[in-house]
Amino acid sequence: MSKLQEVFDCPEPVALVTGSGSRRVGRAIAIHLASLGCRIALHANTSVDQAKDLAKQINDKYSKQAIVTQGSLCDEGTPERLVDETVTKLERIDILVNSAAIWQPTPLEKITAGEIREYFEINSIASFLCAKAAGLRMVAQARGGSIINIGDWATVRPYLDHAAYFPSKGAVETMTRSLAVELGHRNPRIRVNCIQPGPVLLGEDATDEFAQKMATSTLAGKVGTPEHVAHATQFLCENDFVTGTCLPVDGGRSIFAPDGIQAGLNSG
15: Cβ–Cβ under 8 A, 6 or more apart, which residues? Predict the structure, then answer.
């Protein structure tokens, strides 16, 4: 029995991963959890065909049941329905990963109230409602469960043209701590944590020059991968004494400023 199976006292724990249809971080997390013995509930909004293909791959490669749930997280009823479908079809829910998110650069001058609301609806409110729905199901489970929210390292060092996006991700950190208290009070075996990825997935149009720039912006000297985030997810699911924390998976970018200033300068 693997550590994950031991923590949840189940040979096939169930994980719901939002935003796992397209080829982004959520997809890598879903594949990794399947490799550890989990049954998987994938979620997609517009990438349903990709999610169905992934479900087949998981079934074929890992002999694990994988289902596809779908729906826009802008719809207030979607989070509850995704959890209901997961529990109805797979009979339980042990892990929730809130990976679905939206972002795009917008100059400050062009940001509208509607854009800000959309960021909060998907990145913050939907994550909260998914966690609430899954967490209250986990309350009744003897082994509780693990909820993992995906935040962003750059809430501590925000960059230009994302002023509408960052408040919605900053809220995820506070939400994580609050839900850890709320759900842990109801069942001490429920843990809520947050992962803050750094540069782990460059766009397909990224140039070698841009990739090198990203690599040198990290203390680790390289660009990460979605699998780094997936491995952090495994750790937070397996370690039952970690809750309410926000874990940067950013190669040290949140503490490192590649500005050329060297230690040991004469201070006078």
Answer: 30, 33, 38, 39, 40, 41, 93, 94, 95, 96, 97
Q: Rounded to whole angstroms, how far apart are CA atoms 156 and 85?
A: 36
Among 146, 180, 182, which residue's Cα sits nearest to residue 8?
146
Token digits of residue 57 = 């791959």
Decide if domain 3-249 falls under CATH 3.40.50.720: yes
Amino acid sitting at position 210: F
* Per-residue model confidence as pLDDT tens digits over 36-76: 999 999 999 999 999 999 999 999 999 999 999 999 999 99
How far apart are the C-alpha atoms of 259 and 141, rounded to whole Å?
Answer: 50
Run of H or E including 42 = strand 39-44
In the three-class reduction of DSSP (H, G, I as helix; E, B as strand; rest coil), residue 21 is classed as: coil
Pairing of strands 190-197, 66-70: unpaired
